[in-house]
């Protein structure tokens, strides 16, 4: 996405440098300014307050499903979805370099020390390290995506949730304890001087996270060319067939639905509330009759955003492509 004044885009994300959210920012907004925050709410608040231009927020993963905290925050944020981005997620199991190999042998040159640090581990070294691990730290989503690997290879290790994958790596980077490991990206291992024991430990080969780009204003009408997605939040009456009548509008008009989420009823949402993604630009004037018909079957509705569908959909990941 560009800027008429050629200023770097200011983008908030949850986590620190080396996280997958940081990678999403750098891929979608190359050359931008990326500001990490500890929580999703903080990253969204930065956009609302004008501290940054956009937020890059993970919303669902092809292995572990939706990020429920984000879905709960979206309706309250007042922000608009203006884009999406897909990031292949490949996790690494890593331990602190100091804890594993300690100090380099004496009388080594600087070049030899670098080569020593970067040398591959032997099978015996990996086996010894794995057998000593008793705790693995990472973000809950990463732990969920590597559940089978941990059960098969680290049966005696407990999982400890951390706010960020890269944050977990950084937090133990200077530890001398060989029994604590982290699950994070290869980028994080390089940044924080961690020793990778095994790469690609995710349980599913096509493990992919979908990110949403959020801004204070929606995309202008006519700004989208090609396949588009519309994200809609809506409520229905608590009556038999109410949801069917709403969604049947899309079937009658040959509009694909790519996602449907249900919110639990409560004080903030007394009516049945749903979030739907459809493969159409509902801000297109030609879609007004469809939108009016849809709204007529709801108790309330709000378009969260209409935005270009990622051209990465369906390419090495299970997210459904959207027809033009």
UniProtKB/TrEMBL annotation:
The keyword Amino-acid biosynthesis applies. Its EC number is 4.2.1.51. Keywords: Amino-acid biosynthesis, Aromatic amino acid biosynthesis, Lyase, Phenylalanine biosynthesis. GO terms for biological process: L-phenylalanine biosynthetic process. GO terms for cellular component: cytoplasm. Residues 231-308 form the ACT domain. It catalyses: prephenate + H(+) = 3-phenylpyruvate + CO2 + H2O. The keyword Amino-acid biosynthesis applies. The record marks 209 as: Essential for prephenate dehydratase activity. PROSITE patterns: ACT, PREPHENATE_DEHYDR_1, PREPHENATE_DEHYDR_3. GO terms for molecular function: prephenate dehydratase activity. Pathway: Amino-acid biosynthesis; L-phenylalanine biosynthesis; phenylpyruvate from prephenate: step 1/1. Residues 10-216 form the Prephenate dehydratase domain. It holds the Pfam family PDT. InterPro entries: ACT-like_dom_sf, ACT_dom, Chor_mutase/pphenate_deHydtase, Preph_deHydtase, Preph_deHydtase_CS. This is prephenate dehydratase.
């Amino acid at each position: 996405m560009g800027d008429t004044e050629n200023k770097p885009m200011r983008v908030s994300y949850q986590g620190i440098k080396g996280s997958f959210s940081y990678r999403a920012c750098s891929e979608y907004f190359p050359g931008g300014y990326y500001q990490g925050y500890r929580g999703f709410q903080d990253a969204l608040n930065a956009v609302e307050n004008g501290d940054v231009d956009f937020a890059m927020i993970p919303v669902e993963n092809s292995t572990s499903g939706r990020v429920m905290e984000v879905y709960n925050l979206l309706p309250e944020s007042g922000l608009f979805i203006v884009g999406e981005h897909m990031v292949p997620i490949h996790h690494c199991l890593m331990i602190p370099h100091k804890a594993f190999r300690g100090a380099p042998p004496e009388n080594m040159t600087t070049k030899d020390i670098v080569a020593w640090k970067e040398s591959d581990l032997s099978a015996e070294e990996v086996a010894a390290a794995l057998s000593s691990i008793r705790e693995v730290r990472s973000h809950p989503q990463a732990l969920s995506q590597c559940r089978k690997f941990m059960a098969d290879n680290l049966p005696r290790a407990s999982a400890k949730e951390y706010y960020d994958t890269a944050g977990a790596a950084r937090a133990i980077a200077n530890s001398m304890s060989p029994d604590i490991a982290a699950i994070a990206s290869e980028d994080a291992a390089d940044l924080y001087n961690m020793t990778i024991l095994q790469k690609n430990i995710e349980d599913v080969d096509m493990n992919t996270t979908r990110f949403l780009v959020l801004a204070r204003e929606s995309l202008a009408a006519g700004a989208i060319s090609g396949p588009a997605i519309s994200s809609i939040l809506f409520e229905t009456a608590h009556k038999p067939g109410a949801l069917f009548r709403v969604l049947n509008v899309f079937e009658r008009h040959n509009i694909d639905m790519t996602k449907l989420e249900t919110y639990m009823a409560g004080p903030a949402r007394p009516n049945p509330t749903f979030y739907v993604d459809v493969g159409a630009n509902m801000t297109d004037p030609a879609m007004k009759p469809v939108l009016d018909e849809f709204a007529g079957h709801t108790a309330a509705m709000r378009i969260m955003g209409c935005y270009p569908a990622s051209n990465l959909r369906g390419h090495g990941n299970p997210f459904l492509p959207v027809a033009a």
